[in-house]
Design brief:
By secondary structure, the protein is mainly alpha-helical. It contains 24 helices and no strands. The protein has helices at 2-15, 27-33, 41-46, 64-77, 81-103, 109-121, 125-130, 135-152, 156-169, 176-185, 197-218, 234-253, 275-297, 299-312, 336-353, 355-376, 383-393, 398-410, 414-427, 432-444, 448-459, 465-478, 482-495, 500-507. The longest helix has 23 residues, at 81-103. 48% of the residues are buried.
């Protein structure tokens, strides 16, 4: 078995070794490159009571173990991005091996190894592994899988520690106790299904402690809801969330059209019920039905289906709005389901038709996955590659055009920046943050009248007041209204004290 697990580990690692040449991309810069807490182990330990995002960003979350892992990498490599990428690949390999071992309980060894290979090479994983902030997904997966395996072996303390590590790596690690209980329920022997009371109490205690820590530290932030959900009631939210469920299922089954952004109009901002929302309902109902149907017939499928549903639910926007509509890295654990379905199919086909046709089918799927992943990898080489790939593959992404506008404005390419802002606005005009940024750009080039209407639009939104105030402040200064600017400065001091230095810099 060691040889098979080594094969799966090497396969997972080898696919992502080209990323060793990649840089810090997008959120990697704020979370790692510009974050002092990620630059030394003492600083990371001292920041255990700090949000994941630096406090000045107002974005919150609580992932101290992920930050600590970055600090270890920074200490070892002196901040070399390539080392971080190699470590992401290694963690991905560890997660793959642990999942393979879990599935060996229900699948023949070769089928479990095939499942592990498909999990390792699934194209949806490219974002989680090649993007360094995806480390949170990898560590949470390792913690959850480790907790399950330790519980199976009656290593109760190890299981509790792994579950705690999963939670401290990313919020959805809180599902670890539920996954342990579900895995235990799938056991057919009633005697082995009994878990010690002390173990259950310990799991409950660490879960409660994490929830308290997250509510105390992690929720600090204003940007905890995706822009498309601003001003929407429950039905309006579901009009977007259900199509996102359908898109997530498509990514798992047919991962051809990938994207680093699923905001409007990559996923359309429907106002009412749609056919694709109906498909989302079918999938949302079908997943628990699959678990019930397969828990005796195919426990590997039941386990991975439960894992997929539990891990996706916190950001599915079905029960409550989250900060994203859909992100491929959030599907990291969910990929285990299609991989297990193919693995179970491999076991059935090898029993019915022999090993050779089963291996041939598995090889075709694995090669297809691996090829698509390799073709996708360069999109995460650096910021330029990421943005160009998004614009080329998904010109309907308003955030892609907004990002391009910001880059062009920074290069003083006024005409092209204006064009990109106009394109972004034409695709989705209800983002108050974009409206404020667009207004600030127009003020900078002296076009104050259209900037005023954008500021009014931003201020009328449910959120986005912070950016709108900045834009209004700059507009007041551009119109030589220092009294109005001073009033905004005083308001900002009261409501956004961390912005005071920015206001003073521009006021004087």
């Amino acid at each position: 078995m060691k040889r098979e697990l080594l094969f799966v580990f090497v396969a997972a690692l080898a696919l992502y070794l080209p990323s060793a040449e990649y840089a810090f991309v997008q959120d990697d810069r704020a979370i790692i490159a510009s974050n002092p807490a990620a630059h030394s182990i003492p600083a990371a330990l001292a920041a255990f009571d700090e949000p994941y995002w630096p406090r000045g960003s107002g974005a919150g979350l609580y992932r101290p173990l992920t930050i600590l892992s970055y600090a270890v990498d920074w200490t070892v490599s002196d901040g070399n991005a390539g080392w971080f990428h190699v470590m992401n690949a290694l963690w991905h390999g560890v997660a793959t091996v642990l999942l393979t071992v879990i599935l060996m309980r229900w699948l023949p060894t070769l089928a479990a190894v095939g499942t592990g290979l498909l999990f390792a090479w699934h194209p949806v994983h490219v974002e989680a592994v090649a993007s360094l902030v995806g480390r949170a997904e990898l560590l949470a997966a390792v913690g959850i899988f480790g907790a399950v395996l330790a519980a199976r072996r009656a290593q109760w303390t190890v299981s509790v520690l792994c579950a705690a590590a999963a939670m401290l790596s990313k919020e959805h690690g809180v599902i670890a106790p539920v996954v342990i209980l579900f895995d235990n329920w799938l056991q057919r022997d009633a005697e082995t299904r009994r878990l010690p009371t002390g173990f259950l109490v310990a799991l409950g205690a660490i879960t409660a402690a994490f929830v308290v820590a997250w509510l105390t530290i992690g929720v600090a932030g204003a940007h905890d809801v995706a822009v498309v959900f601003f001003g929407r009631n429950t039905l309006g939210r579901l009009a977007v969330a259900l199509p996102a469920v359908a898109r997530a299922a498509e990514l798992l089954v047919w991962p051809i059209s990938l994207s680093s952004d699923y905001s409007p109009q990559v996923i359309a901002a429907h106002q009412g019920f749609s056919a694709v929302a109906a498909l989302g309902i079918v999938i949302a109902i079908g997943l628990p039905a699959l678990i019930v149907w397969s828990h005796r017939r195919a426990p590997a499928i039941a386990f991975t289906a439960a894992l997929a549903g539990l891990s996706y639910l916190p950001t599915a926007n079905l029960l409550f709005p989250s900060g994203i509509v859909l992100a491929e890295r959030n599907l990291y654990l969910a990929v285990a389901l299609p991989a297990a379905v193919v693995g179970a199919g491999f076991a059935w086909l090898s029993a019915q038709r022999g090993l050779r046709p089963a291996v041939a089918v598995l090889a075709v799927v694995a090669v297809a996955y691996g090829t698509r992943s390799l073709l996708r990898l360069p999109a995460w080489r650096d910021n330029r590659a990421q943005l160009l790939t998004l614009l080329i593959e998904h010109p309907e992404s308003y955030l892609g055009h907004a990002s391009a506008a910001a880059v062009l404005a920074g290069r003083h390419d006024t005409a092209d920046a204006r064009r990109e802002y106009h394109t972004a606005d034409s695709l989705y005009a209800e983002d108050p943050f974009l409206n404020a940024a667009h207004a600030i750009f127009l003020i900078g080039i002296g076009d104050t009248e259209p900037a005023r209407s954008l500021i009014l639009r931003a201020r009328s939104a449910e959120r986005g007041e912070r950016g709108a105030w900045r834009a209004q402040f700059l507009l007041s200064l551009a119109r030589h209204d220092r009294t109005g600017a001073a009033a905004l400065l005083d308001s900002a001091r009261q409501h956004y004290s961390e912005d005071t230095s920015w206001y003073l810099m521009h006021f004087h």
